[in-house]
UniProtKB/TrEMBL annotation:
This is Lymphoid restricted membrane protein. It is a single-pass membrane protein. The gene is OLFML3. InterPro entries: MRVI1. The lineage of its organism: Eukaryota, Metazoa, Chordata, Craniata, Vertebrata. Keywords: Coiled coil, Cytoplasm, Membrane, Transmembrane, Transmembrane helix. One of its GO terms (cellular component) is endoplasmic reticulum membrane. It comes from the Eukaryota. It is found in: Cytoplasm; Membrane.
């Protein structure tokens, strides 16, 4: 990603005689600081917007306000799948009282949504990574331009108080660079927490469905064991009855043989 050649030039004529450099420096430094704030805010908003629309690439503003350059890369269009949040809203899972049939239907829809998302997961990860890298490159480029401005001003400035102010600005710029890194890390953590919050209800419904299946399995297993015991008991009773019948028959036969006279 390249910026326009004229965007990094210092467009203010320095008045070095009679200590008149202070006002131009203050005006330029304030505009540079405001520009840095705008770039930082725009980059963070761009990262958040890309997380919501993964198929979109970004256009970044570099340099002065008169130079705007768009990313020349053609974004790859991704098939749009309903997000987990929209699926949950359509299924009405915000309600706490769900029947087992509702939970089972929600589980089927969520499983289908997860399978659909898996098809474009790697591609969406690459798009998000490119957007993040582009935002970080633009921020680092703006910081580099500000450092160049400060170095030129330091070399051109002869006033002691002005040099001290420029040194303070350089320190502030270093602090700003460190703050940008911390903000990027915090933004990633915040995005992960937001995703976890969006998926928590879906995970809860799926876990509830698994618990229902376990409960059904235990109940059916208990019924099966009870049925086995009944079958075995009936089998033993039938065998015992048959044995008793045979014994009675043998006894009757023996009694008849003894009762018959010779």
């Amino acid at each position: 990603m390249q910026s326009q050649p004229g965007s990094s030039q210092f467009r203010m004529k320095l008045l070095l005689d009679d200590g008149m450099i202070l006002n131009p420096v203050r005006g330029r430094m304030s505009s540079t600081q405001e520009h840095l704030d705008r770039v930082l805010t725009g980059s963070m908003e761009s990262m958040e917007s890309v997380s919501e629309e993964p198929g979109m690439e970004l256009a970044f503003c570099t340099g002065d306000n008169d130079g705007i350059e768009e990313d020349g890369e053609t974004p790859e269009e991704l098939p749009s799948f309903p997000s987990e949040l929209s699926v949950l809203e359509k299924l009405g899972l915000h309600s706490t009282n769900l029947t087992e049939q509702d939970v089972e239907a929600a589980f089927a829809h969520l499983a289908l949504a997860f399978r659909c998302d898996m098809f474009t997961l790697q591609q969406r990860v690459q798009v998000e990574k490119r957007a993040q890298d582009a935002a970080e490159e633009n921020i680092q480029e703006e910081l580099g331009q500000c450092r160049t401005f400060l170095e030129r001003l330091t070399a051109s400035c002869m006033d002691v108080s002005c040099k001290e102010m420029l040194e303070q600005l350089q320190c502030s710029l270093a602090v700003l660079a460190a703050a940008i890194k911390r903000a990027t890390s915090a933004a990633e953590k915040l995005g992960a927490v937001h995703q976890e919050a969006r998926m928590s209800r879906a995970a809860e419904v799926m876990v509830q469905h698994v618990e229902n299946l376990k409960r059904h399995h235990l109940r059916e297993h208990a019924e099966l064991e009870e049925m086995k015991c009944l079958i075995q008991q009936n089998s033993r009773n039938r065998q015992l009855a048959e044995t008793q019948g045979e014994v009675v028959s043998l006894l009757r036969g023996a009694t008849l043989q003894h009762s018959v006279p010779p």
